[in-house]
Amino acid sequence: MNRKDIHPAKTRVTVSVGESVRIIRELQGLTQSELARRTKIPQSTISAIETNRINLGVERAKTLARVLQCHPAVLVFPGWDVTKKSAA
């Protein structure tokens, strides 16, 4: 296959911060209760994050990312397009 034949994937679904947490948690086979136990974040708070009733926040993002074994940016910026010019 030639490099010219490869095209970047297109965004098909917009995912919220809460949905990104839920999707990654479910892909790892964790319940909210298990994630709460491992992170010491109350299950009710995880539920509120996943339903976008409260903000994730930097510290919770770091805590969740450690347990979910992903970079915090994956949780905080689920719709970020890395092909766009840097905002920095």
Structural notes for this entry:
The model has no long low-confidence stretch (mean pLDDT 87). The radius of gyration is 15 Å and the shape is elongated. The protein has a domain of 60 residues: lambda repressor-like DNA-binding domains (434 Repressor (Amino-terminal Domain)). The protein has five helices and no strands. It has 88 residues and is mostly helical.
CATH topology of the domain at 17-76: 434 Repressor (Amino-terminal Domain)
**Beta strand %:** under 5%
Shape: elongated
User: Main beta sheet: strand number and arrangement?
Assistant: none
- How many strands appear in the DSSP assignment? 0
Cα separation of the termini: 35 Å
**Low-confidence stretches at least 5 residues in length (pLDDT < 50)?**
none
CATH class of the domain at 17-76: Mainly Alpha
Please tally the helical runs, counting DSSP H or I stretches of 4 or more residues: 5
Give the oligomeric state: single chain
What is the CATH architecture descriptor of the domain at 17-76? Orthogonal Bundle
Radius of gyration (CA) equals 15 Å
Return the average pLDDT rounded to an integer: 87
Structural class: mainly alpha
What pattern of helices and strands is seen along the backbone? Answer: HHHHH
CATH superfamily of the domain at 17-76: lambda repressor-like DNA-binding domains
Percent helix, as a range, is: 40-55%
